Here is the input.
Amino acid sequence: MEQDDRELAGAARSAHVLHITPRIGGESERLVHSTLGKVASRTDTTVLRLAIVPERETAYGLAGYSRAESTAGSEPLVPLTTPARATRLLQQGPAAIVGTPADLLALVRATELKLQGVRQVVLLWPDAMLTDEAQSADLDTLLSELPRDADRTLIAEQATPALESFIERIALKPRRLTHGIAVDIPTRQIAYVIVAGELRAQALQRLLDARDVSDVAVVADDDLATREASDAIVALGEDTATVLHPGAVTAASLIVWYGPPRGATRVAALLAAARDTSEIVLLTTAAELQRMRALSPALTLNPASFPHATDAAAQRVRALRDELSALLRREPMDAELATIEPLLATHDAAEIAAAALRLLGRARQAVARAEQVDRSTSASTPPRGATAQAAAAPEQPWTRLFLSIGERDGVRRGDLVGAITGEASIPGSQIGKITLRETYALVEVASGVADHVVERLTGVSIRGRRVTARPDRAGARGVSADARRGVRRELSDEPHAARGGPRAAREHEEWSSRGERLRHARRPPAEPPGSES
Here is the structure.
């Protein structure tokens, strides 16, 4: 421990440092939080410190720990996630911030975040960020905006070839420190339940309902988790369950780990205190489960069996398994096996099957969304012979959006429907007509959600292309097709307009005027020919 402290002190004096450490474990956790603590505990608000993480959940967790550990007169780490909230927080002048490459880069491009004063940068798990092409590109762009003399600390799980290439690309020659786990973890079977982080409390309630054990202890290793677990137990009316204070151990009959314990030392202590007959259940996210599996070969993790949130969800899972079993019995898989055979050299067969299931799920969701849009479009068309009163019913207001992706990018209407409903979380009934052109697309959405769709869709990758969304300059539904053609012929491929500036403003005004002239020049007669007496 003292040797590690001396190494960390030496690393702090070095301009650039690379730490290689397991993503879970006592030493790795101490390293991560001590490094970020140095970022968050400084009181000089004239210098900005920046932490870059792969996902928002990590940003929330680090900011929460920083706030709990901050002392009087120090500033905690501030998470910058959604644009509106991040803009408001930046107006308060935080000295230390944390966010993902995409979120931080969006704030830089919107001129809300200034990076000229950054003096210290921490990249947490860059090896994970470099495996995602879009996140890797965002990270490169973000680092190019930073001052070259800013100190950089990298904390990685593995020194992968991509990480080494990245270090060479940004011209770093960091001091390297490798950390390991020297903790004897006893052999033990642990059941787990995979949950979303924000739904852990509901999973705890379902588990206690299903088990009905009179001697229960819940292990929550931070103040926020302790409060969540306590509130869940109180709401359940349970008086036989106890939430342990951080650091305590137990020998209860049922031990629930409310998230992975903090580090290998903590895991070893909890397992040593538990009875051989104690049942241990871990409530974990998928990412946390992978790190627990990598912690020690002595741990055997198996899925826990207890009722799912709804019987319908369990029935869908069983139906899918039955469908796969029937397909395997009924049809040969020679072509499919030949396709996946090269993958077996680098991936487990179960992992490949899981990836195929995910692709199947996405395809079925896209088809369902497209069918929903078709049904809503058909329902919005008045049937032949409809009454005048029905025909005169007010129509939902629509706003047409311009998307910088078109047929030459290989995009289809179903791709756009899936992206909009998935990213903006709106029903297909709020999506109207979709017009695809070679270099762009026009999508009508309900006016009430148009701004939300623009915000959520901008920056999203569809068919490998990053999309820009904005209200269509030709206006809402009702503008003539001729006017749209007059304006859109030049505006569909104008990258300079999206950048703004005086030139773009002049060209926008010019083409808008041209479209207006065309609209009046080509307006159809008020009455059809031959109707005059």
Notes: The longest helix spans residues 349-380. The CA atoms of residues 212 and 514 lie 74 Å apart. The chain has three domains: 2-178, 188-303, 395-521.
